[in-house]
């Protein structure tokens, strides 16, 4: 990767890190402030529980006083809304408040023997155990020397406040993920339109000089009586190749027409054209299944193979070998095309990055070849990825296409 692209990549990574750090600070500040509020309200509710307990004790132990003072104490006690239970020194429940009335009084009648209301003891045991886990008890000493214990639960508002920041941050995170996905999709769509426009314009601009070159070739053949001249024939093949390239660019952005082709034959034909235009020190080998078929668009598929072979050739510094292995995966009804070279290889950190537009390890590269290759593989409803690579030993790209053959399970 050249210096300018490396700088842009570093800047992009830095901005991502800063945005992530800023989001983490916001989340930490929200959790810290909510935790502060929860602690403050928790202290306030403990004070409420203490006041309620003392009010209840006063009502039970106060001597005869005027009705106005008794009404005041009752008003103070009843104004404190918090689930609570008071137990005596033996652990027996003697008072409670703000519990489920359907559980605390099962039968709306008075027991004639004990003169008490019937209640659900299991419900009380569960609530008491829950309160013991929630807060330390409040000791309430009496004049008789006995000590009551007051247990209580957090109010509904406080419990909701504890989970509110997590709920809030979760909703914000979901919103940001959706927003990022939408904006990223819009950005990619805009980039696609730019690529399509540039490709079609390039195809249009190439059309005139290509037609002119074909005319000049015919004129040279006629003028010098060179119908079978090998040099002119090779020039004609290259001009026709330019026509194919122009046709490729014109098809970008359009739905390609796919037809059944034998993969081995398509690759073999292209390799025969390609290898005579590369160094003699690089050998090519095609192995694997020679009959498997898939739906292909020949000009676009040739472009895929060309880009991968060019990358393989550039990775080989002096001499080496490029192998294309075609594998029929019968179980998944897929075709694997592995293109391996004996070049310099790459690090695993670049396995995904190499398919991003603008990413290149060459000083003069544009970083568009593999990005376009991935797009054309997508046109064929396939996949492409780096299967394996090792520095100094080579790289293997794998293309996965849907097989045109369908296999029915054998009946036993």
Automatic annotation (TrEMBL):
<dbReference type="Pfam" id="PF02518">
    <property type="entry name" value="HATPase_c"/>
</dbReference>
<dbReference type="InterPro" id="IPR036890">
    <property type="entry name" value="HATPase_C_sf"/>
</dbReference>
<feature type="transmembrane region" description="Helical">
    <location>
        <begin position="163"/>
        <end position="183"/>
    </location>
</feature>
<dbReference type="InterPro" id="IPR003594">
    <property type="entry name" value="HATPase_dom"/>
</dbReference>
<keyword id="KW-0547">Nucleotide-binding</keyword>
<keyword id="KW-0808">Transferase</keyword>
<dbReference type="InterPro" id="IPR005467">
    <property type="entry name" value="His_kinase_dom"/>
</dbReference>
<protein>
    <recommendedName>
        <fullName>histidine kinase</fullName>
        <ecNumber>2.7.13.3</ecNumber>
    </recommendedName>
</protein>
<feature type="domain" description="Histidine kinase">
    <location>
        <begin position="201"/>
        <end position="405"/>
    </location>
</feature>
<dbReference type="GO" id="GO:0000155">
    <property type="term" value="F:phosphorelay sensor kinase activity"/>
</dbReference>
<dbReference type="InterPro" id="IPR003661">
    <property type="entry name" value="HisK_dim/P_dom"/>
</dbReference>
<dbReference type="InterPro" id="IPR004358">
    <property type="entry name" value="Sig_transdc_His_kin-like_C"/>
</dbReference>
<keyword id="KW-0812">Transmembrane</keyword>
<keyword id="KW-0418">Kinase</keyword>
<dbReference type="GO" id="GO:0005524">
    <property type="term" value="F:ATP binding"/>
</dbReference>
<keyword id="KW-0067">ATP-binding</keyword>
<keyword id="KW-0902">Two-component regulatory system</keyword>
<feature type="transmembrane region" description="Helical">
    <location>
        <begin position="17"/>
        <end position="38"/>
    </location>
</feature>
<keyword id="KW-1133">Transmembrane helix</keyword>
<keyword id="KW-0597">Phosphoprotein</keyword>
<keyword id="KW-0472">Membrane</keyword>
